[in-house]
Design goal:
Layout (H helix, E strand, L loop, with lengths): L8 H9 L11 H22 L4 H18 L4 H4 L8 H14 L2 H14 L5 H16 L4 H5 L18 H9 L4 H11 L6 H14 L2 H8 L7 H14 L5 H7 L5 H14 L6 H13 L3 H15 L4 H7 L5 H14 L4 H7 L5 H13 L5 H6 L7 H14 L4 H13 L7 H16 L6 H9 L4 H20 L3 H5 L7 H14 L2 H11 L4 H13 L6 H8 L10 H14 L2 H13 L5 H11 L4 H6 L12 H16 L11 H6 L7
Helix pairs in contact: 2-3, 3-5, 5-7, 6-7, 7-9, 9-11, 10-11, 11-13, 12-13, 13-15, 14-15, 14-16, 15-17, 16-17, 17-19, 18-19, 19-20, 19-21, 20-21, 21-23, 24-25, 25-27, 26-27, 29-30, 29-31, 31-33, 32-33, 32-34, 33-34, 33-35, 34-35, 35-37
Amino acid sequence: MFRTALIPAALVLAALVTPLPAAAQGPTPEELVEQERLRTAVLQAFDALGEASTPVEYQDRFDQSLEELIALGEPVVDFLVPEIETPDPSRFFLASLAAAHIGGEPVSDALRIAVESANQESGKIPMTRIAWAGFCLALMGHTDGLDLMDAYRLKSAHIEFGRGLSGLEMAAVVLGDKSVPLLLDQLERYKQEEELSDRRVQVIKALARVGAPAGRKAVLGLLDEENLLVRGAALEAMGALGKPEDAAVLIEAMGDPLPRARLLAARALDAIDPGKLDSKAETALLGLLETMEDPQIRVYIYPLVADTLGERALPLLRSGMQRAEPLERASVVRGAVSVGDKGINLVRLGLNDPGWAVRIDSIDGLFALGHPSAADTLLGMLRHPHWGTAQRVMATLLDKRDPRLAPRLASMLIQEDVPNFRPDGASIERIRFLSDALVTLRYSAPADDLLQAAETMPDAAIQIRLRDTAAQLKQIAERGDDADAWASMIGNENPAMHRLALERLIEIDSTASFAHLAKAFDSLDPELQTHVLTWAARGPAANAAELARRVIDDPAYDRESKLATRDAANWLARRIGGKKMEASLEGAARRTRGRDATALLYLAVQRGKKALPLLRELRGPRMGQPRSYNGVEQERIDWAIRRLERGLDLDEIDGSPEELSAWIRFQVR
């Protein structure tokens, strides 16, 4: 691999332009030792990247090397600057980012030279280097980094450094409001030539990321732009920039002749969540409901109509349940849920809908409405002929720990599924799900019946599953709430028994049970650590607070390879609540300079509007630690900022890390 000599840049320049006086003395022995230390540290940082065998390991090594180089401070810049010219992308990314974090004129000069040099070449790598150098300049506070991405022959502003996050957007977020005048100038300059429309699109996206009022004003002026790319980008940007008072113009845009423009306008209107509309906008929306035949758009209209009209929307929603498209009927159910108790009959109607998506939204909607008969209704659906629907019903009741569920599931498993077993995927999946559910519900009564059922099972793997389930249920009955008894099973050679012991210690939720967990925690593999924290959060277990803080406060869990464990601890902290948990979440967010997105988001859910200063403060710094998923996380954080600014809740993201990971508010296909 190519390697530069790592000669300090200052020494090279001095040797070239400044003759040494005759009496001048060279470096002292101490200075030579320090130079060698720095040179070795830089080489080790680069070598660590080359030793990574997986993307996760590479990210861990990159993060560690970056922090180590930054910690060396200004003296290491002389060793990093020459590396900014290396053709090795990994070395270039690390050297330029570390140098930018440290700062100084030699770094900015080297980055600008790197842009000029890359523009003499061709291909994706030189373009990426230009975008990265421009971003690093922005990280140092230099606004010209935005222009340098597109100032030469190679146009690089569009290069992505993560899903849905270009170099220009990253630079704009880092610079914040300082970027807006330059972006608006670019928008005007690029307007002069039609072939520059793709560059205008990039600028619009960057303005949306910054979220400044001047950007919103500029984008509003582009909603009737003739160029389809620009108009589409402006409509999409309104999802991030728009305010409730923009509802009327977006409703008008939903009548755009271009199908994609209509979809983008509908999504933007949904994103700004306008709430109650004025009479003119309300009339326009109802008019669209009468004339719009595109089901992709109607999906967004029904919930908006429900939010606007309340109970007056019910006749329109009932009419919508007659539509042919299942996703449209599902949106009607969601609208009925938002109406409240008066919409429950429509929600119940959806339980028997032929569309699977409609049934799922109806199942969720019943509990969202908090109706006292919701569990009774779902218990009657346990034998639904569609397994996906029955499984969702079971999972919902399982999550609620409804005591009436266990005997019903046991009866189904022993009297129906085992005798009628077929060696196919569906039958195997049902038996696995039902047997796991009995253990989760801690229902030990059918243990002996399961052992007898296992004797009649022709499939060896399912026979073992039934015996294991029976063994777990017997342990549940025998050990009860004895923390010491369960602690003796930690490390059991049977993984299922090992996991069960950990779960039971959490459920006992005593000082003694968590003392055992704390003692064993560090020896657990990351997957089990994550499971322990997640299981404790579902309670939540009050005695788990110290365990949550142990993970959140430990920088070792900031690593990419520990991401799932850290996220689970953050969720546990959110579920437990209180000032100490808030302090730990804020400490993690600050320590990682905003990279720990779940800490930020759960803190926002817990603190509400009081979290706004921290969310705003860390928007830029978190971009200085690039991740492939930074763009998606930034959308969630910015959505939270906009909601809190309007005094709205963050209930949509107040869920498990898995639910949060699946939540993508602004997604246009």
